[in-house]
TrEMBL record:
GO terms for molecular function: hydrolase activity. Residues 275-609 form the GH18 domain. Residues 181-262 form the Fibronectin type-III domain. The keyword tRNA processing does not apply. PROSITE patterns: FN3, GH18_1, GH18_2. Keywords: Carbohydrate metabolism, Glycosidase, Hydrolase, Polysaccharide degradation, Signal. Residues 1-36 form the signal peptide. This is chitinase. It comes from the Bacteria. Its EC number is 3.2.1.14. It is an enzyme of class 3 (hydrolase). InterPro entries: CenC_carb-bd, Chitinase_II/V-like_cat, FN3_dom, FN3_sf, Galactose-bd-like_sf, GH, Glyco_hydro18_cat, Glyco_hydro_18_chit_AS. Transmembrane segments: none annotated. It comes from Streptomyces halstedii.
């Protein structure tokens, strides 16, 4: 229901003059000091030209003549279903500059924010505004930021909100100039036919040219590339230049690298780094963490899981994936750009997988028809985008065990049996190079130490431990298991004590269970065998906003010390030392970027990357 205005109404010239004076007084009282170079960069912030310059998700926005804050028009945007009525525009800005974003809003749960700042994206909101209320926030752009997206939105299921007189005040974006030459060029570990390169970004660059022995051989949009097609046991010299609309920079200082003699294992699911960082990329949706293009994924991430492929219905087995809609993610790349960026990541030695499921993507393969549809639809996604494999992130009610299904070694529940069969078919189709990872919650794995399915007499939650037969049946094909050590209740460890998320102790106890093995539901005749350390990574939220159970970098370090060195273990004593532990998984790459890369930086510092 739309709210009415104040009960007292002015009429005639006095009302017009009073309103104008009040508006002017409010502006003067609250506006920050501006420099001579500052200007309002927002286009059509008063909506006097309709929605010119603005994009509103799902057609949620329109322009109305009442109520307005000033002038003759204002934005009215109406949330519906899962659409929060986000209206946005992209504005050209200058790097390393400070901006103030303001708007007058009216309604319940109205948000104002800016994304793509290159530093910390900002937002502010009001819970209830019966009359126009000013929202204001500020931010500083990053050293390479030349555009930001400003937006307003409401909240799911609430009434329409109004916005007017939106301004973004700060220095305007300068005409493009030729960027400086890249610095920090480094060569990674060479193979017999390739050399991975990385460098520091140049401010204002939109791309980079890679030179081998003085000849341009490759272009890149990010700050890494892998030069391929090289000859074994040969020395090469590499340089990089930066480009934008104004031209190409001078070349960087040269770096030399020599290819190996060959004969080692290269490519495929077995060639991950000894210690790998796995992250999920919000490729099909947006949330408060902001959209990240594939080309902009930092080089620290070794495995990139695309979140998410989801079914057309819970039981169809028909999995679909598409990039985030432009209306929801204004900065989303084109399909061609996305595919090119995937290839570039792979050329740099990264693995890119499709992750199936997630919190909202319930998948139940109840029939062989659904199983076969799953195989064909997942294959289509892998082939369309040229991906390296599959991540299974079945949550909620996707997996459960029928009454009487009590032995994880010989499952009988169709949703489990059909999933195992489908994944084996995919593995056989794509061969040894196929990368297979899984991201179950603790409820579906470690809880199996106490409870398995509905139990021998029924009555228990049939989902308890339901991932165990899947993991066990596919252990020889499994590249990585990274259980979500978050959004979890307390779980009993092998010390028969309960452990709670958020500190090193939880990760130590949960990981030790996977690397030691355990009797399922306490039955010593049904022991889930240990996984290899190189098959296991610890799953954590990348920031406090990403999920319950965030663990500070210091506590993550303690957990790694205990598991790989048997130091800093606290009260829990592991059943072994696991220097080959593969690494860490984070939800998500987007949330880590939102948190200034804290998670990835801690990983790199610990493992010396």
């Amino acid at each position: 229901m739309e709210r009415t205005g104040p009960p007292a109404r002015f009429t005639g010239l006095l009302a017009v003059c009073s309103a104008a004076l009040l508006a002017a007084a409010g502006l003067v009282a609250s506006a920050p000091a501006a420099t001579a170079a500052d200007a309002d960069l927002a286009r059509n912030g008063g909506f006097e030209a309709g929605l010119d310059g603005w994009t509103c998700s799902g057609g949620s926005g329109t322009v109305v003549s009442t109520p307005v804050h000033s002038g003759t028009s204002a934005l009215k945007a109406t949330p519906a279903g899962s659409d929060n009525a986000k209206c946005s525009q992209t504005v050209t800005v200058k790097p390393d500059s400070t901006y103030t974003l303001q708007a007058w809003v009216r309604g319940d749960y109205v948000y104002l924010g800016a994304s793509g700042t290159g530093t910390t994206d900002v937002s502010t909101w009001t819970q209830s505004a019966g009359a126009y209320t000013k929202l204001s926030t500020s931010f500083k752009t990053g050293p390479a930021t030349t555009s930001v997206t400003v937006y307003t939105h409401g909240w799911y299921g609430t009434a329409a909100y109004y916005a007017d007189d939106l301004t973004l005040v700060g220095p305007g974006g300068a005409p493009a100039t030729v960027p400086a030459a890249p610095t920090g060029l480094k060569a990674g570990t060479a193979t017999s036919t390739s050399v991975p390169l990385s460098w520091t970004a140049s401010a204002g660059a939109t791309g980079y040219q890679v030179y081998r022995d003085g000849t341009k051989v490759q272009t890149a949009t990010g700050t890494s590339a892998t030069v391929t097609g090289l000859t074994a046991s040969t020395a090469y010299s590499f340089q990089v230049s930066a480009v934008n609309a104004a031209g190409e920079s001078a070349k960087s200082a040269a770096v030399s690298a020599t290819t190996t003699s060959g004969g080692g294992q290269e490519g495929g699911g077995g060639d991950l780094p000894a210690h790998a960082l796995v992250g999920y990329l919000h490729a099909s949706f947006a949330n408060g963490s902001g959209y990240t293009r594939m080309a902009d994924v930092p080089d620290s991430w070794d495995v990139i899981n695309l979140a998410f492929g989801e079914p057309t219905s819970v039981t169809s087995g028909d999995i679909r994936f598409s990039l985030c809609p432009v209306a929801e993610c204004p900065g989303v790349e084109s399909e061609a750009e996305f595919k090119a960026a995937v290839k570039a990541k792979q050329a740099a030695g990264k693995k890119v997988l499709i992750s199936i499921g997630g919190q909202n993507g319930q998948v139940q393969l109840n029939s062989t028809a659904a199983r076969d549809t799953f195989v064909s639809s997942v294959s289509k996604i892998i082939d369309t985008y040229g991906l390296d494999g599959l991540d299974i992130d079945f949550e909620g009610h996707s997996l459960s065990l029928n009454t009487g299904d009590t032995d994880f070694r010989n499952p009988t529940s169709p949703v489990v049996v059909n999933l195992i069969s489908a994944v084996k078919t995919l593995k056989a189709k794509y061969g040894e190079d196929f990368v297979l990872t899984m991201a179950p919650e603790t409820f579906f794995v470690q809880l199996g130490y106490q409870y398995y399915g509905s139990g021998p007499w029924g009555g228990q939650d049939p989902r308890a431990g339901a991932y165990l037969p899947v993991i066990h049946a596919l252990r020889d094909d499994l590249t990585l298991l990274h259980v979500q050590d978050y959004n979890s209740g307390s779980i009993m460890g092998l010390d028969n004590q309960y452990h709670s998320m958020g500190g090193a102790d939880f990760h130590i106890a949960m990981t030790d269970m996977l690397l030691t093995g355990f009797p399922v539901a306490g039955d010593q005749t049904k022991v889930f065998p240990a996984l290899r350390p190189d098959q296991v990574a610890i799953g954590l939220p990348a920031s406090t906003q990403a999920g319950n159970g965030h663990t500070s970098p210091a506590e993550v370090t303690k957990a790694l010390n205990c598991l790989t060195k048997k130091t800093d273990c606290g009260s829990y004593q592991t059943h072994g030392t696991y220097p080959g532990l593969r690494g860490l998984m984070a939800w998500s790459i987007n949330w880590d970027r939102f948190n200034n890369g804290e998670f990835a930086k801690n990983f790199d510092a610990y493992f010396g990357n």
